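Thread title: Can someone regenerate the structure for this chain?

I was given the following input by a collaborator and told the matching structure tokens would be attached. They weren't. Posting the sequence so someone can regenerate them.
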Amino acid sequence: MAAKPKENFIKIEDDDGGYNLDMFCIPRHYEDAIENVIIPHGLIQDRTERLARDIVKDNGDGHMVVLCVLKGGYKFCADLLDFIKALNRNSETSLQLRVDFIRVKSYENASVENDQSTGEITVLGGDNLSSVEGKKILIVEDIVDTGRTMSKLLKLVHSYKPASVKVVSLLVKRTERSSGYRPDYIGFEVPDKFLVGYALDYNEFFRDLNHVCVINEAGKKKFAI
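Best answer:
Regenerated them for you:
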């Protein structure tokens, strides 16, 4: 019997009940809005450190342009870069980084972070993408849902003829709506639930929550716009 391919991510099962809120420090304004903690902050940090090591190992010495996808990707990107910088200081391999920040806007759906759009996209902010020509690119994303938005972003970035493009996403949602796209580096594969925290938002709330959590129905009503 052939060996099962090794998974390069931590899989959170569909029936995973997460952790009780009483085990963690949760801001009081969110206590009644969260069902459970599904990924504690410490586990996020440990997994991010390993992703940083894998990225440095795969790309070796040289130069890489990091494109952080805002808004949800800012905390993951900042922590990932801190771990890469630590590796640069303490190993013989040194990966020089240039960092830029972009936002992706869909004309068919305002909630780009939920990755629901099937229309065209445009990149807002950051340098002109023509500056990526001939360079190694690392796109840093918080969550990939269906994968359609990221596929369109990759097509746009490739049109500027970079040397290579890789994607690292903290989370990949396991959903029947998936286009089949998978990032090069994945932190966690998660159930098809609405997740908040660690910069993932619901109507711009919950970005100030350290853990990745499942929002409950009361929370959706409380923070509805």
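Strands lie at 10-11, 34-39, 62-70, 95-106, 121-124, 136-144, 164-173, 185-190, 195-196, 212-215.
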